[in-house]
Specification:
The protein has strands at 24-32, 35-36, 41-50, 53-60, 63-72, 78-84, 94-99, 102-111, 114-126, 129-137, 144-153. The protein has 156 residues and is an all-beta fold.
Length: 156
């Protein structure tokens, strides 16, 4: 008699379902301060759910740029986020709110006694197209868009 062992895949936290949309390869075209960037670049997100964590390794044009970690923040569509850079430094605790097709990342950083607020918004136009804007503010109320652009999923 031979015994066989089988292992079931761990259940993926349903809170991570919206985050799965960002998996894959994207062609990114940016505009900075109203001027088109020199050339589009390729953004790759390799994502995995592990226990209470969801993480995406991000590369730009085959160069690792960050490991983005997401943790559910207690209510549907809200997450704490942390970016870990290739040298191992974490950038600080940030937030993400997913409301339908709109993702809003918010953060703040203190430098020299001043706080600067940051907001990046991704609007999924469909499963293969995203419009994004990154803005900053000295007070969290008046925002100036620094970068905007489009992301298009690259077919496999």
């Amino acid at each position: 008699m031979t015994a066989t062992l089988s292992f079931a895949a761990p259940a993926v936290n349903p809170a991570f379902a919206p985050l799965q949309q960002y998996e894959g390869t994207w062609q990114v075209t940016r505009t900075e301060s109203g001027t088109p960037a020199a050339k589009p670049y390729r953004l790759v997100n390799r994502c995995v759910a592990l226990g209470i964590y969801f993480a995406c390794e991000q590369t730009i044009d085959n160069k690792p740029t960050a490991l983005r970690v997401f943790i559910p923040a207690g209510s549907p569509g809200r997450y704490h986020t942390q970016s870990i850079l290739p040298e191992g430094r974490a950038t600080g605790l940030d937030s993400l709110e997913v409301a339908g097709n709109r993702w809003t990342f918010t953060s703040r950083r203190q430098e020299g006694g001043n706080i600067t607020y940051f907001r990046s918004t991704n609007v999924f136009l469909d499963k293969n197209h995203i419009h994004f804007e990154s803005a900053q503010s000295p007070d969290g109320k008046q925002w100036t868009v620094q970068i905007s652009g489009e992301q298009s999923r690259v077919p496999r």
